[in-house]
User: Fold this.
Amino acid sequence: MTAWEKLRPYGMVAPSIIIFSMFFIYPIFYMIYLSFYDWNFVSPDKTFVGLQNFKDLLTDEDFRQVLSNTTLYTLMTVALTTGLSLFLALWLNRKGVFHAFVQGAIFSPHIISLVSISLLWSWLMDPEYGLLNWVIGLFGFEKMQWLSHPETSLVSLVIVAVWKGIGYNTLVFIAGLQSIPADIYEAAALDQSKPWTTFRRIILPMLSPTIFFLVIINMIGSFQVFETIAIMTQGGPVNSTNTLVYYIYENGFRFFKIGYASAAGVILLAIVGLLTIVYFRLLSSRVHYR
Amino acid sequence: MALRVLNVLCLLLLVLVFAMPFGWMLSTSLKTLPETMIFPPAWIPKQPVWENYAEAWKTGPFLKYFMNSFIVAIGILICQALTIIPAAYAFARYKFAGSNLLFGVVMVTLMIPAQLIFLPVYLELSALKLLNTHLGLILPFASSAFGIFLLRQGFMQVPEELIEAARLDQASEWKIIVRLMVPLVKPVLVTFALFSFIAHWNDYFWPLVMTTNETARTLPLGIAKIREVEGVATWNVLMAGNLILVAPILVAFFFSQRHIIRAFVYSGVK
Assistant:
């Protein structure tokens, strides 16, 4: 093997590794470093404060609310999106022009900008003149406040996220269903297996890699929710929709508390990292691979 | 038979849940302001107000926003093609010391939500004097961990015999990659290109954080700004602006729906 052949792979991965190191890996360490300092971005001096930023965060009522909002939002969004799209996939898994049309329709929000979706849903959820209140009125419900009331605001954001994400999830599930070999279904049919048994014993285990993939993707996406909140609620009313990334954004860019915002970022990083490891451990032992 | 009719009705209802908001957007964009303030709402405006579109367009330098969006999304795509293909190939096909460690860097990057580290990246770009530039918006995404991951899977599925045969024909590694491997993984590449372009064309967060003036601002920022210029309740103008942003993508989707869906979903299966 010539020296060139030995070096070639490194040359091929180098550009990507440099980009990742500069804009993903190094920033993590820089953020951890900053989290020990008090800095307002404008002043030339950073003051070392040790763990003070973390102490402040953990005793801050707002931050606790932010943590619970983010967790609640993620759990609701992931559960609803995954569950509903699995149901839709079983329902829509047919060939033909009509089914392709339906699949296209439910998929369409996935490729639309979150800016558009946020503006559109702000208007749909308008408490006075919004279409959504008209629709629920058809079913005999009273007008709701949606985003303007702290009790419904977070759920309203979940509705938007599910509406946007469900089409993509459904189509990934359908692809998963179609990759299950037909002879397995035939064997189940020969054994006169009930539909529920077939679902539980065959479809669900065979789909577990897909479920695993979607849960991870959805969780990572939900944890970094920002656009809908920035445009639709700005974290309100009374902090009811303030989530981690928005909190970091506000503290960093509006209040210039760089150290404090970095500490919040470190906590979020720890949570996401921990969840990822737990998921990989848990699912690598239980996911069915062919 | 009755069951089939019921099934079709339910399907149409499902379509309505996704189509109605877009129809409502169109309808609102053609109303006068007083017409938007009627409840129960009227679907058809008495006299379509096309001026709403001109009004929306006038709220900012939209031609510039449009160009910026295009430059950034295409710039990212070109950089990614140049960085991802060789990296994915090396990870899929070469054994080299430290490859596990380096692939670990890719996997860690894949797991880091970009929106977590925007603050240090902002400070970094500020130090590099790259805020408010196209390059500053492109550089952090000049490679993609997701792309490498996806493409590596594609390269690994190519049978070893094919490459061996090419090597016996004295083909250089360069030729093997460009002439043999890249065409074989074309579906994955198309998938990823669509993903990447749509994601960065639509992106609001990074341009919002990494720009402080109009020089490099993109279309989604311009649309979101209409609300500041026109006031929060001018839904007719807002929906007109919104339609300007949505229409190109929806039209593209309408004409190449099957292709886009197949491409998107292909990446999700494995």
Summary: Residues 60-269 of chain B form a domain with the MetI-like fold fold (CATH 1.10.3720.10).
